[in-house]
Specification:
single chain; 18 helices; about 0% strand; globular
């Protein structure tokens, strides 16, 4: 993506024709950010891997632990939204607390986060559609073509008013959540394989196997909930809607994942679930559904797995286009990206830019002959997981610094204790992710043992390169346009 080092002269405020508007309520925003978390995809794909590679029977507890850490983070985030009347979310909050250079650095880290997770899911969608169509007797079409078709559909919806996307996401989300809850209800009604119990939450099971790897998979499942603040300009009453949507999203996602993964363990029993996951983690949710909901349920959940992926990329597309829109209005991306469509009231050129970016990435992956699941999905989901943990940790620190400096909110729990605990938890999570990164991306040594190698170095290097780009850009602006650099404070940090 091409950037400019010369901010617009009106960086302090977005001019007419560059301001988003809408009347999104708590429910609509929650639908969009929860859809980004892709609940069915998490339970069908990530949970079996968390059980297999993480802490086995105790894996459901990792969702609860992750939810607690992220809820602590959300307390400071919600407090900050009342004092930051701008939709830039992380990079805006970091700018307010830690200054313009740190704000721009975090802005580019956010771009990496959401672009990486989006293209990773596009790869998985291409694979799923190929398998589904060929399984039904259809033609064997290469996965990149399915991915590019998905990009086109998402781009069409992203180009139009946000209300259309929210309605589509609402329908898809209800479907995927509904089928999982139906499965859990069937498991509970049948009493599971060996009876219902709280075995996944017993300390001995929580600490069994590799709890660090389990935590890594669990935190990855929450990516997207934090984007509520991105929709500030399109919210009905942002000072009330955004905090409420943030709390509802993280609590709802945490409860859903914990309940659903517990149901998955109960479906096979604490003594058997690890073996079932080892046989075929990718098909575990389908086999479980067939056993408890029959063939019809299996067909429905197979279809909804595809729509879950689609809902995920549509939601992330909306998030990143608004990040780019905010960065453009701040003057750090080309001015045209910040324009708003006169009819659809959408950041249409930002949406188009993101669609082109995703398409180019998919073409490059196809040329390099990367596997859509083992490489495209796994590698770039790993990058996004690490980047989001770092980004949220930096944001927590910025929130603490901001309130300590401004004294605008005297609530100790909301401005110091909760974000401080969230910061510690997120830093710990980032360390765990880095330590286990070779396993996540399949980087091994000559003996087949997970070890830091070329793939790990390149992908981890991206999480360092993008913030450096933002930091350097801020320094260039300060040196070449010092007067405009001062106004950047209004656009990025108040």
């Amino acid at each position: 993506m091409t950037v400019t080092t010369k901010p617009a002269a009106d960086a302090g405020a977005a001019p007419t024709g560059r301001v988003l508007s809408g009347s999104l309520g708590v429910t609509a925003i929650v639908f969009m950010v929860v859809a980004a978390a892709a609940p069915l995809t998490v339970i069908g794909g990530a949970a079996p891997l968390g059980i297999l590679l993480g802490n086995g029977v105790g894996f459901p507890s990792m969702y609860a632990i992750s939810a607690i850490v992220l809820l602590l983070f959300s307390v400071g985030l919600a407090a900050m939204t009342k004092h930051v009347p701008k939709p830039g979310a992380f990079f805006t909050f970091v700018g307010y607390g830690l200054g313009k250079k740190a704000g721009l650095a975090s802005a580019f880290l956010a771009l990496l986060t959401y672009t990486a997770i989006q293209v990773s899911v596009y790869g998985y969608i291409g694979y799923l559609l190929n398998v589904t169509v060929t399984g039904l007797g259809g033609p064997d079409i290469a996965w990149p073509l399915y991915s590019l078709a998905s990009i086109a559909i998402v781009g069409f919806l992203g180009y139009r008013h946000i209300d259309l996307s929210s309605k589509v996401l609402g329908v898809l989300l209800i479907g995927e959540v509904g089928i999982v809850l139906a499965l859990v209800a069937a498991v509970m009604f049948a009493g599971g394989a060996d009876g219902l119990s709280l075995a996944p939450f017993e300390p001995s099971n929580v600490m069994s196997g590799s709890p660090g790897i389990g935590l890594m998979f669990a935190i990855a499942a929450f990516i997207g909930f934090e984007a509520t603040a991105i929709f500030r300009d399109e919210a009905k009453d942002p000072n009330r809607t955004i905090p409420r949507a943030t709390y509802v999203a993280v609590i709802g996602i945490g409860l859903f994942y914990t309940l659903a993964s517990w149901g998955l363990v109960m479906a096979w029993g604490p003594d058997n679930v690890l073996g079932v996951a080892a046989e075929d983690p990718g098909a575990m949710i389908l086999v479980t559904t067939a056993m408890y909901l029959g063939t019809v349920g299996e067909i429905i959940i197979n279809v909804l797995l595809v729509t879950s992926m689609f809902a995920c990329v549509l939601s992330f597309h909306n998030v990143i286009t608004r990040y780019q829109h905010s960065m453009s209005n701040a003057g750090v991306l080309p001015a045209r990206i910040g324009s708003v469509h006169s009819k659809h009231v959408s950041p249409h050129l930002s949406s188009l830019t993101q669609s082109i970016t995703a398409a180019v990435c998919i073409v490059i992956f196809a040329v390099l002959n990367l596997d859509p699941v083992l490489q495209v999905f796994t590698w770039f989901a790993g990058v996004a997981t690490l980047a989001i943990a770092i980004l949220m940790a930096i944001t927590s620190a910025a929130i603490i610094v901001y309130f300590a400096r401004t004294k605008k909110d005297g609530r100790l729990w909301n401005t110091v204790i909760a974000p401080g605990l969230g910061f510690l938890g997120l830093v710990g999570a980032a360390i765990v992710i880095i330590a286990n990164f070779p396993m996540l991306v399949g980087d091994v040594d000559a003996t087949g043992t997970p070890a830091f190698g070329t793939v790990s170095a390149v992908l981890l290097g991206l999480t360092a390169l993008f913030p450096i780009i933002g930091w350097v850009q801020a320094m260039v602006i300060k040196k070449t346009h010092p007067a405009v650099y001062d106004t950047l404070t209004d656009a990025i940090s108040g």
